[in-house]
Design a protein that fits this description.
The structure holds two protein chains of two kinds. In chain A, strand 5 (about 185-190), helix 9 and strand 6 (about 210-215) form a beta-alpha-beta unit. Helices cover about 60% and strands about 15% of the residues of chain A. Chain A is an alpha/beta fold. Chain B is mostly helical. The chains are: A alpha/beta, B mainly alpha. The interface of A and B includes residues 274, 307 and 314 of A.
């Protein structure tokens, strides 16, 4: 049996192609795939950045054609040409396919390396395949190994520890200042995509109380509705800052609106409680002179972006350690998978020896007048003999099958035990001869 | 036996300190948790050493400097573990464990081989003085350690440098809470220690003040701490100032109470 993986991701296919091929419910597609003779097991992973199908097959060439057809017809609705398929699709077989699945689950193949969502998406894809009966024992094992690998990568490396988005960096910094966000208050001055992302991330971290200040009352009111906040005008800024622990600001202004004097007054009112200022405005909304104030922590967009870049580099350095873990885990799975090659030979060997044993026992018992107890003793004795004789070779075959020269051992076993010859003749056949 | 247990305690605290240091250097949060667990084990062994110490005499013979330092290390570490129930400050173990180790190591080295003798003129006032003042000093020491970590983190944040979340360092707010708690509890205990000390001196010499260097420096140290507490809870100074004050105040008190004792 072979493992075959075909797919496309953010590196190989543009978004409009990935959007077209995205699958919400993989069950019907998987049902169709495993109904084909050439596909024994299948799992389909569809996310915004990738769509991949991994299958177990006994005929990899036929399965490859089937999967290409599946991508072109079933997923793309004949909207992709063969040339486009060649351009967008990648293929991995056996060891490479295993490694790819392990890397994907461990977020090493993600657009943002170390992002946590892909593991959950892979688990969902596997669960869907199990529920519709498309996954079998071998892909089960592969995906369980992938989840274990992802867990090891997350715990044994720092790949996911440092935030790489500006919004997450802001939250991480806020965590280093404040112990608990549930009783903290945020003030949003102005608006913008980046600042709203930072605010959302802070809300995810537990921040509840938010107020919005803007030049335009209408704009403030709209944002306030979006964030479940209270709306204020800019004239209320001094009082609002004094009450706020986190100030996110991104407003078009020629001069800083958060001045040193304003912050000094706010800190006096706050009795020294710290203020975290996230200044996304360009030009800056917060005067850099406020850095001189002990209890004000100001980060502008350059500071946050620079930290995000540093973290991304740190994650990149961690990928080498993560890749080593993936290689180790792949080797373990590969060993188990390769050992499966020995299974048919071992089964054949056991069957052959059992046939011989049964034949010889029948022949001997025909010549002996034994009672029931004695016959059972002879049966047990011969069965035990066969098992003991087989134990060594079978153990060796299982062990060696996982190695490169394993096939040679299997060939020798077949030759020595005559497994490819005719089965032993029964008593009746011998008489006929 | 007591010295044997103290040495064992020092080893356990040292292991906790090394684990905490390794956790910080390698960025392994789990090592920090392990370190806290080891530190808790050290506190248990340490407590056992006091139990045996108690059995050796009629009352806790902590009037010896070595035993008092050992008690300070124990109460400070215990207070840290108790604070962990209410504040996420496990990362502070990186300073608490080495400090506890140094205290117990000092005690193990300086502890008289034949055990500690209770002064003839001791009595309950002497013991109350040592226990209360030691507990007060230990808590103020904890405030000082929290202050050290606070200043390090404050400096890093001001320099716009980011650390991994995995380092398990406490937030500035949590460290400030440790500072506030330690001052709020430690200062009254120290004050009671000073009062019982004065009563003890009164009972022995007929007057509360004999003008020894220990008395003078202790009173000056207490007065400085009183100013710091007033600044913290009265003037509501910022957290960084409070952290810096706690370090200076604790360093001065260590000199006033222990340094003078050892020098004189």
């Amino acid at each position: 049996v072979k493992i075959l993986l075909l797919g496309m991701n953010h590196r190989t296919a543009p978004l409009e192609v990935r959007e077209r091929l995205a699958v919400d419910d993989p069950a019907p597609a998987l049902g169709k795939l495993v109904a084909c003779d050439e596909v024994d097991e299948a799992v389909l992973l569809s996310t915004c950045n990738r769509i991949e199908v991994v299958v177990l097959t006994r005929n990899s060439d036929a399965a490859r054609l089937r999967l290409r057809s599946f991508f072109r017809r079933d997923l793309a609705g004949d909207a992709l040409s063969d040339a486009q398929l060649d351009e967008y699709l990648y293929e991995h077989r056996d060891g490479d396919a295993m490694r790819h699945v392990l890397r994907v689950a461990s977020s090493l193949d993600s657009m943002v390396v170390g992002e946590p969502q892909i593991l959950g998406q892979t688990k969902d894809a596997y669960r869907a395949a199990v529920e519709c009966g498309a996954s079998g024992p071998i892909l089960d094992r592969l995906f369980q190994r992938a989840f274990a690998t992802a867990k090891r990568v997350r715990t044994d490396t720092a790949i996911a520890e440092r935030p790489v988005s500006v919004a997450r960096v802001a939250v991480s910094l806020a965590r280093q200042i404040f112990e608990d966000f549930s009783h903290k208050r945020a003030l949003l001055v102005g608006a913008g995509e980046m600042i709203e992302m930072a605010l959302s991330a802070l809300r995810d971290a537990g921040l509840q109380s938010i107020c919005v200040a803007n030049r335009s009352a209408e704009r403030a009111a709209r944002l306030a509705v979006d964030f479940g906040a209270t709306a204020h005008g800019l004239d209320e800024l001094p009082a609002l800052i004094a009450e706020s622990d986190v100030v996110l600001t991104s407003i078009a202004a020629e001069h800083p609106i958060l001045t040193r004097e304003l912050l000094v007054r706010a800190l006096h009112t706050r009795r020294g409680r710290p203020i975290f200022v996230i200044d996304i405005g360009v030009p800056r909304n917060a005067d850099p002179a406020i850095d001189e104030l002990d209890d004000v922590y100001r980060y502008d967009i350059d500071d946050l972006a620079s930290l995000a870049d540093e973290n991304a580099e740190e994650r990149h350095r961690e990928t080498a350690r993560a890749e080593a873990i993936v290689a180790e885990e792949q080797q373990r799975f590969d060993g188990w998978f390769a050992a499966l090659r020995a299974v048919p030979t071992i089964q054949h060997l056991r069957r052959r020896l059992e046939e011989i044993r049964v034949l010889e026992v029948q022949r001997a018992l025909g010549r002996l007048a034994l009672g029931e107890a004695e016959r059972e003793a002879v049966e047990a004795l011969t069965r035990s003999l066969v098992n003991k004789i087989l134990h060594g070779p079978v153990t060796r075959l299982r062990r060696e099958a996982g190695r490169e020269e394993g096939m040679a051992y299997l060939e020798v076993a077949r030759l020595l035990f005559g497994l490819d010859d005719d089965p032993p003749a029964g008593p009746g056949e011998r008489r006929r001869r | 036996m007591v010295i044997g247990l103290l040495e064992l305690t020092a080893i356990v605290y040292l292991v906790a300190g090394l684990a905490a240091g390794a956790g910080l250097a390698l960025g392994h949060r789990r090592l920090t948790d392990v370190s806290v667990g080891v530190l808790a084990g050290g506190v248990a062994v340490h407590a056992l050493s006091f139990t045996l110490l108690h059995r050796g005499g009629e009352a806790p013979p902590l009037t010896n400097t070595a035993a008092a330092v050992s008690f300070m290390a124990w109460i400070g570490t215990l207070a840290f573990l108790l604070i962990l129930w209410r504040a996420r400050v496990a990362g502070l173990v990186v300073l608490v464990a080495p400090m506890a180790f140094m205290g117990v190591f000092f005690a193990a080295v300086r502890m008289p081989a034949g055990g500690v003798a209770t002064p003839a003129s001791g009595g309950p006032l002497a013991h109350a003085h040592v226990l209360l003042a030691s507990a007060g000093l230990a808590l103020l020491g904890l405030a000082g350690l929290a202050g050290v970590l606070f200043l390090a983190e404050h400096r890093r944040l001001k320099r716009k440098r980011h650390l991994s979340d995995a380092l398990a360092l406490p937030s500035l707010e949590a460290l400030d809470r440790v500072n506030a708690f330690s001052l709020a509890v430690g200062f009254p205990l120290l004050t009671l220690g000073v009062v019982t000390g004065a009563l003890w001196v009164q009972s022995v010499h007929g007057r509360p003040w004999t003008g020894t260097a220990h008395e003078t420096w202790s009173l000056v140290g207490w007065a400085i701490y009183a100013v710091l507490v007033a600044q913290r809870f009265g003037a509501h100074r910022g957290a960084r100032q409070c952290a810096a004050s706690a370090i200076v105040g604790f360093a001065f008190l260590v000199f006033a109470v222990l340094g003078v004792e050892l020098l004189v």
